[in-house]
């Protein structure tokens, strides 16, 4: 197999480990893609487990990497963290005028409809291509992976976890888009990316997946009570589904918190400890 | 005394407390100024001590507020943190084409020379006007203050601490500009802002102040060994001065770290604990 080129854009020492930013040409999206990867100090001595952090609307690989505060706990627990971008980008890539569709808003699905299908293959990118790349190039254990995300990234984390059987040991989410088929954040985008096949939409809806298949492992969800997007996120649907499914999981409403990274960073320690418990012997 | 107007730009819940951003018209600078203030949960029940975090070149109030990770430890210790801007800003405010002079580069001095003197009164703003404002408007104890900063802000923290007798219980710095009168980061700016009076320059040089007066309390300085600006920061001069002065203090060279916020966030826990020990009974 040909080793594809990967470029190091930056590497900064962080909590005794290394916060890197890398760029490569993606087969899945047909564009250059940039991602962040934090390697904890333990990675110097052998392979480490990995946590995927999927970000929300308008974010690049950079927002969570600089604002979520994950590195302190990744270093403490000895877990690598990958921060993928949220969509393909560039001049030749389809886009939309609104901030919640097109570039910066890939919704972690493989688009089947024009003009999106050409580059918007974010599910394949995040679920297949990027895992192969990071396992190949970095000291990361292929068989110890967990996933989390914020907002659209919470939707991505939950839907990937429930559709990639036995891939992830645990899944968590911060203020996830919880019920995309019943929300302004989902209906329009899924129709554009996936057409009108209800089965395709259902595989991109965390609540429907929870009702249907659930997750083979522990689930943690945090949601702020003062989130300005509660009507679009629909946490109540997911909370109900977790309970109805008898899913092993914890759903927390956090008083006073909004949708920002100040909310994410306030609870990142809990999420990192939750994943560490699932990932470490 | 007339209560001057202050506008709330945002307030986000963070680690059980409140990360606010506020704007007011400054008498010192003659411009609108924006600052961040984190109030820990303990501020709901009474006055709390305060730590000043002064930022570096090109930063606004926002960089450290979102990237340094101070809030977790401010909440743990019950300490408020103020994040001032680094200069006056706006269309009518003098500026320079380079990133290290003019807007975003106030150097925490009161300019005496044209065209800077009109608005660049950052020492008075940070040392006098903003403390009065935050003590007046928030539950902050006037007599329990400490100060820290990064790069140009480390220079600000150290020089303010050594020239405002008994104001601060402790001072720390991340990769401070340590010897401005002997550096590209200092000579040109101090000449522009302060003219050619050697006494004025000396009061804006942490190493000269350490040799001359020192600090009446503990000092903590962290410096990365891979900092890309070591030749401009001149940490060796300050380290020598601390030892020669027999100053109570700790100077740490941190292997592998550079000048970024990944360095700052890696050691913010130590700095917050250091200040907490000085500020809390």
TrEMBL record, chains A, B:
Transmembrane segments: none annotated. Signal peptide: none annotated. The keyword Magnesium does not apply. Keywords: Hydrolase, Serine esterase. Its EC number is 3.1.2.12. Pfam families: Esterase. GO terms for molecular function: S-formylglutathione hydrolase activity. This is S-formylglutathione hydrolase. InterPro entries: AB_hydrolase_fold, Esterase-like, S-formylglutathione_hydrol. Serine hydrolase involved in the detoxification of formaldehyde.
């Amino acid at each position: 197999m040909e080793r594809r080129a990967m470029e190091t854009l930056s590497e900064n020492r962080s909590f005794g480990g290394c916060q890197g930013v890398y760029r490569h040409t993606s087969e899945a999206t047909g564009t250059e893609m940039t991602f962040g990867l934090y390697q904890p100090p333990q990675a110097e001595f052998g392979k480490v487990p990995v946590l995927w952090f999927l970000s929300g609307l308008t974010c690049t690989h950079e927002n969570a990497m600089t604002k979520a505060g994950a590195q302190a706990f990744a270093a403490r627990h000895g877990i690598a963290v990958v921060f993928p971008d949220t969509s393909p980008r560039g001049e030749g890539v389809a886009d939309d005028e609104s901030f919640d569709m097109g570039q910066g808003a890939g919704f972690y699905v493989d688009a089947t409809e024009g003009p999106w299908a050409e580059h918007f293959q974010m599910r394949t990118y995040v679920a297949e291509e990027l895992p192969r790349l990071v396992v190949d190039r970095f000291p990361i254990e292929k068989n110890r992976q967990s996933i989390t995300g914020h907002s659209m990234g919470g939707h991505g984390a939950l839907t990937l976890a429930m559709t990639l059987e036995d891939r992830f040991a645990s899944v968590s989410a911060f203020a996830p888009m919880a019920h995309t088929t019943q929300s302004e954040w989902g209906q329009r985008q899924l129709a554009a990316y996936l057409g009108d096949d209800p089965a395709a939409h259902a595989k991109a809806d965390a609540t429907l997946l929870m009702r249907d298949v659930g997750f083979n492992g522990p689930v943690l969800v945090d949601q702020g009570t003062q989130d300005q997007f509660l009507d679009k996120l629909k946490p109540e649907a997911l909370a109900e589904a977790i309970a109805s499914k008898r899913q092993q999981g914890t759903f927390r409403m956090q008083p006073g918190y909004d949708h920002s990274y100040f909310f994410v960073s306030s609870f990142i320690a809990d999420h990192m400890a939750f994943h560490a418990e699932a990932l470490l012997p």
